[in-house]
Amino acid sequence: MVTPREIGLTSVDGPAPAPRKMRWWILRMAELLARIGGRSTESKGLVVIRMDGIGDMVLFRRSLDHYAEVFGVKPADITVLGSRSWAGLVDGLFAGYTVHAIDEHRFHKKPVYRFGIARWLYRQNFRVVVLDSFFRKPLMADSLMLIAQAEEVVTSVPWLSPKTRKLFAYSLSRATMLVDTGEYPVHETIRHYRFLSAVAGREIKPESIRLSWDGGPSPITGEEPYVVLNFGSNEYGRRWPLGKYLVTARWLLDHGYRVVFSGAKNDVVHSAEIAAALNSDQVIDLIGKTSVAGLMDLLKHAVAVLTNDTGPAHLAIALGVPTLVLVGGGHFGSFVPYPDAVCPSTARFLNVEMDCYHCFWGCHLRADGRASFPCVAAIEQTDVQAILSDLLA
């Protein structure tokens, strides 16, 4: 355990002063107003703050099953305050727990929406609030942690930058237990188990990343095997060039596999280019056409997945599907590649190391914001095909 003073956030012990930021005060007022009327119920239960994307949720999910024992509660008394981006997976992945999903972007930007969430969270009167994310926003995850007004506030030391130090000093100095899970870069999954070990007072060893998903049949009919190419990413720079995906698709077709392109709705603009380049009835375009649960079913029944560093990559790996992830160097090692201790045998990662690794995606080597990062674009077609051949063998 550590204190904010020990990690250099404050010069004295005790609560740090409020930041002198107008936005902080505006949002804080909405949170304080939410307390009007009080709360009559007895404090009980535990809430876990997980304002994550899909990939982060996957890396966290298995560690959640230790929370009941570590914190001395029943699984039914644990509520996960999560992101709407993976709300469609709750019934299949969080049986036995309560999940309350919110729109984290609206919470961050809309004071009225923030007030509604704050009012709900405060009135739940949770006894314990837990937040162990390393990469997080102080005006989002930490605000939720403080809104809960729980008797016990158990959290971890996040990534600290000059812009966020004072904001985090305020929230962390109000924690009843603060855990340091290690310097950057440590893989997120390892952090989750270090956090649990510190709270439990004993070692809880990291476990291989895995999801149990019953789901339904594949959205792809027919008996012929198919390979999923997940060519998109929220950050364009993390995308291996589409032209290289098309070459890989042709190679897979020549080897007798059907090829399924998956992606988000904003990737539909590439559908015409894909169809024109491949011109085959063995190519199936599901770009923007699957729900997140449908995507799980699609991935689960694939013989292999080729993907950029994005949420579906983690889903595919956790489902045990042979998966090749093409990795850049922005925060190499924090999310991908997986360390051996938690990496399934069916997962592969491919990268080309450069001197500018750990740039946090602030790449200075590309002039076009829609271009691939050089470290991603440098991944060779022949290397991709060699690994896919091994996975498909």
Task: Give your account of this protein's structure.
- With 393 residues, the chain is of the alpha/beta class.
- The protein folds into two domains: 179 residues, Glycogen Phosphorylase B (Rossmann fold); 167 residues, 3-Layer(aba) Sandwich (Rossmann fold).
- 35% of the residues lie in helices and 14% in strands.
- The protein contains 15 helices and twelve strands.
- The strands form two sheets. The protein has a six-stranded parallel sheet, sandwiched between helices. It has a six-stranded parallel sheet with strand order 9-8-7-10-11-12, with helices on both faces.
- α2 runs parallel beside α9, α2 packs parallel to α13 and α7 runs parallel beside α8.
- It is globular.
